[in-house]
């Protein structure tokens, strides 16, 4: 199949001078002519009509002469365009109008979307009075709004703005450049819309301290750039969708104080950048979620006030970067790991109100950074290790009702930074260090 370029030569405006590729194919001894239009055919002209389409229409109403190498549009009549060719080109034009054109957002579009959502709210702070149609030209100066250099909205921050209503009327598609969406500590309710997944550039999402209910939408897992996810203190229920594990850039995730029940651990991916994870105050039960042990960069882990009922996992000691560990008020059983000292970065160790048994490991004194140690309300046995006296930075020691026996070690006197100590409801004897504030 030979191809010959066609040059459009017309007395029309210069913007109509665009190339069309002429194709010639032979079938059963007959020659059929058709046109392969360049991708720029949908470029808009000054009158908002695709420029190249205008040219093709004009070409269809002219005549054509063709040399062996080129075909030239000219006004003298040589060979009329056949009706077949005209219909074919017009059909192509119609098809072009069926293809949605991707448009960039304008400040006006974004401003109108914000005003529509504001109007749908039951109540809002007077600080949103700047959100007005009469002030569209100053969108980037509206309260809670941050823009990029092109005037497109990149951040919406409405913390504690007394907002009451839903996100049902929020047009997420109007904000393709949004990186921060912060609505924490308001009175918003309803479901978190699945359309939130259209915010493909979102880095920071904070919906904490509201009344959102139903489940966490699985579509949140499509927010591939997300680094901060805070859904704390809502009424979200059901399982945590495994798609959340697709958030491979997340470093902060707080799902605490909801009504969540489970993880699909078999399908939940590890999160290599996750440093902060809170699942506290939910309705989780069963075994310790194994994906957590793959999150090697965790520094903060709070799973308190749930119904986990598993043996205290020895593999916990592999999370060597942990600084904060809170498993209070669950049903973890068995002894503490003998080599607990591998968690050398720990500052807070809170494992009270469980079913732990056995002795407090002697090497607990090697946790030299420890500030808080809580082992209360367990079924431990034996004594308080003298090595606790090595925890010279310790500020809080709560061992009440832990099942301990023997004599209070005098080495506790070395813990001079203690501001709180509770050893009650054990079977201990001896005296407290003289400098301990009673």
UniProtKB/TrEMBL annotation:
Cellular component terms per the entry's GO annotation: membrane
UniProt keyword annotations, A-Z: Leucine-rich repeat, Membrane, Repeat, Signal, Transmembrane, Transmembrane helix
Chaperone as UniProt keyword: no
Domain named Leucine-rich repeat-containing N-terminal plant-type: residues: 109-148
Pfam family name, one: LRR_14
Broad class of where this protein is predominantly found: other
Occurrences of domain Disease resistance R13L4/SHOC-2-like LRR (ranges): 293-426
Gene3D superfamilies named among the record's database cross-references: Ribonuclease Inhibitor
Cell compartments where the protein resides: Cell envelope; Membrane
Family label: Belongs to the polygalacturonase-inhibiting protein family.
Protein name, UniProt field: Leucine-rich repeat-containing N-terminal plant-type domain-containing protein
């Amino acid at each position: 199949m030979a191809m010959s370029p066609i040059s459009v030569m017309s007395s029309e405006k210069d913007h109509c001078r665009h190339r069309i590729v002429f194709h010639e194919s032979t079938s059963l001894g007959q020659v059929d002519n058709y046109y392969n239009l360049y991708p720029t055919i949908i470029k808009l002209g000054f009158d908002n009509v695709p420029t190249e389409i205008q040219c093709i229409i004009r070409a269809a109403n002219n005549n054509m002469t063709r040399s062996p190498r080129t075909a030239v549009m000219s006004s003298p009549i040589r060979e009329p365009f056949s009706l077949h060719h005209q219909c074919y080109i017009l059909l192509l034009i119609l098809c072009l109008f069926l293809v949605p054109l991707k448009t960039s957002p304008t400040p006006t579009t974004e401003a109108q979307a914000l005003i529509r959502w504001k109007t749908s709210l039951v109540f809002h702070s007077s600080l949103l009075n700047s959100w007005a149609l009469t002030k569209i030209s100053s969108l980037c100066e509206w309260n809670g709004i941050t823009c990029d250099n092109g005037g497109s909205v990149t951040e919406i921050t409405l913390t504690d703005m007394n907002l009451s209503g839903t996100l049902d009327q929020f047009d997420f598609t109007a904000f393709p450049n949004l990186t921060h969406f912060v609505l924490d500590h308001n009175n918003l309710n309803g479901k978190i819309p699945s359309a939130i997944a259209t915010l493909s550039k979102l880095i920071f999402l904070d919906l904490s301290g509201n009344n959102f209910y139903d489940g966490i939408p699985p579509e949140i897992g499509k927010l591939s750039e997300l680094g901060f996810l805070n859904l704390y203190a809502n009424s979200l229920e059901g399982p945590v969708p495994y798609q959340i594990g697709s958030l491979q850039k997340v470093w902060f995730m707080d799902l605490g104080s909801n009504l969540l029940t489970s993880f699909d651990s078999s399908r939940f991916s590890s999160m290599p950048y996750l440093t902060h994870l809170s699942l506290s105050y939910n309705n989780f039960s069963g075994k310790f979620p194994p994906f957590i042990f793959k999150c090697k960069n965790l520094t903060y882990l709070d799973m308190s006030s749930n119904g986990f009922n598993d043996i205290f996992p020895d593999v916990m000691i592999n999370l060597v970067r942990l600084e904060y560990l809170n498993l209070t008020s669950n049903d973890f059983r068995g002894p503490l790991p003998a080599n607990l000292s591998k968690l050398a970065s720990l500052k807070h160790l809170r494992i009270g109100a469980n079913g732990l048994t056995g002795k407090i490991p002697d090497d607990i004194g090697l946790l030299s950074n420890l500030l808080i140690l809580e082992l209360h309300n367990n079924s431990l046995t034996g004594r308080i290790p003298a090595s606790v006296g090595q925890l010279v930075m310790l500020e809080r020691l709560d061992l009440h009702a832990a099942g301990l026996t023997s004599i209070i070690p005098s080495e506790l006197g070395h813990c001079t930074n203690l501001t709180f100590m509770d050893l009650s409801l054990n079977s201990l004897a001896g005296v407290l260090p003289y400098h301990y504030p009673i």
